[in-house]
């Protein structure tokens, strides 16, 4: 997952859901315990009321016919009461508990002990029971009596179900609210990063030269270092341009003087040819090394503004048509108007110019150039000439290598194009063209 916002959002949603789940479980358990405790206390209160109105006569417990709790007087009302003797035999039952299928009551408690628990009958119906054992003494008469009250859990479970529904509704609404608040807070927190992206895009488009926004302290290291890198790159590029210009200017005159001197000085023809050849080689070596240095510096300019490709291709084609006017070369261009090159314009002209010049030099009548955008930028130049044998293709990409020693040229065009391709993270390859000649493809990955 490449998006920081998506990572943070996914992690926050997971933690939020985990928190809400644990909160739901904790509140549900707390409500269940509180509701059960309240019912147990209420049942214990019912036992105290029964004990308050109970009388013992001849080992029989007598209670009023109409009890204060109306549900004890109604059959199958959901609230039941019984009194057991020391042997666990029922010696009194409320009107609601006269049915033999009523709730089960555990007995056998020591005097003074009470117990609350959940019991289930044969139909798996649940009851909350409360028992209290007392030592009942009237004169010389002493009896161990256990007062027991049971309540149907149906009402308790309905109440618990309503609470759970309400809790889930409110927690769900709270989750949506917190999620919306989290997204808003995250967008606000990541706004400086989006500003950095926008400013870097503006630098790439040439609209500005550095980052100008005010950023949080956490981003100062990034923005300050990026501005320092841009400033250093600009200064280095200026120094390189000046050095190249100075070098080209300083070498131009001495070489011209030497060439003129060789032409005017009387010397044997063999010596004159040797001197002329060496001077020409010096010029070519200087041109090649200058192009190599320039390609390395230019390709490093990753934030250079985009350069439209088709106008440059058309301009180079027009220039070459004048050079190869005698051959009447037909050049077809396949290039989308929207395609751009990110780098110095001179680098693009050097690559395309060298490939087109070689194609025009070796073609019979037709040259085709195609510019495609896929995983990178692909510049394909084809011709209908004799082509290049597979065993010689790699060798021709080396410096000074030539397909024909008698043909004009110096054998550095493809080498310069290859160096530029490598500087842009790509490659230069030679293949067979459907036109019958060679296909040279320069692929640039930046």
TrEMBL record:
InterPro entries: HAMP_dom, HATPase_C_sf, HATPase_dom, His_kinase_dom, HisK_dim/P_dom, HisK_dim/P_sf, PhoQ/CarS-like_HATPase, Sig_transdc_His_kin-like_C. SMART domains: HATPase_c. Keywords: ATP-binding, Kinase, Membrane, Nucleotide-binding, Phosphoprotein, Transferase, Transmembrane, Transmembrane helix, Two-component regulatory system. Residues 187-238 form the HAMP domain. Signal peptide: none annotated. GO terms for cellular component: plasma membrane. This is histidine kinase. It comes from Thioflavicoccus mobilis 8321.
